[in-house]
Amino acid sequence: MIASSKNDFHENDLIPIIISEAIYVHNKLGPGFLESAYKECLKHRLIKAGLYVEKEIPIPIVFDEIKLECGYRADFPINRKIILEIKSVDCLIDKHVAQTLSYLKFGNFKLGLLINFNVLRLKDGLRRVVNGL
Fold first, then answer.
1. H helix count then E strand count, the chain
2. Rounded distance between C-alpha atoms, residue 33 and residue 120, angstroms
3. Are strands 66-68 and 61-63 parallel, antiparallel or unpaired?
4. What is the pTM for the complete model shown?
5. Which residues are registered as beta bridge partners of 111?
6. Residues 39 and 74 sit within 8 Å (Cβ to Cβ)
């Protein structure tokens, strides 16, 4: 898909770009680095690929119709359409998926991508997370 601006991409069109760049970073670094190293390298590659990348934006919780700042921050909203969460852990667990789903819900995003870089094959560390809105 050729987009006239960075926000013209559909969520599903962004996923292959993000995964391709994540694979590039993983192939260069391999597993075993801190999460912060993968975040910075992937952010660089995503911007180089022409995507609009925000870093660690606050995600307030809405409770009783009031926005409450509780210190939650989404790693990377991409093109204001996808939440990208980066991990470097032994394995992804339900808590990581729940965290990503919470960011989707309270940030009004439909789609999230959870990537664990601490794996031998990156495809084993990928999780697509969908908010039913």
1. 3, 8
2. 12
3. antiparallel
4. 0.89
5. 82, 130
6. no
Determine the pLDDT at residue 7. Answer: 57
- The DSSP result for 40-94, as a single string, is HHHHHHHHHTT--B--SEE--EEETTEEE--S-EESEEETTTEEEEEE-SSS--H
69-103 residue pLDDT tens: 888 899 999 999 999 999 999 999 999 999 999 99
Task: Tell the residue number behind the tokens 């991508």, with chain if given.
Answer: 113
Length reported for the chain: 133
Residue type, 34: L
User: Contact, 13 vs 111, CB < 8 A?
Assistant: no
Q: Which residue has the tokens 């032994």?
A: 90
Say how far apart CA 8 and CA 23 lie, in whole Å. 24
Over the chain, what is the mean pLDDT?
Answer: 92
- Provide the token pair at 55: 């870093």
Buried b (16+ CB within 10 A) or exposed e, 85-105: bbbbeeebeeebeebbbbbbe
Q: Is 2 helix (H, G, I), strand (E, B) or coil?
A: coil
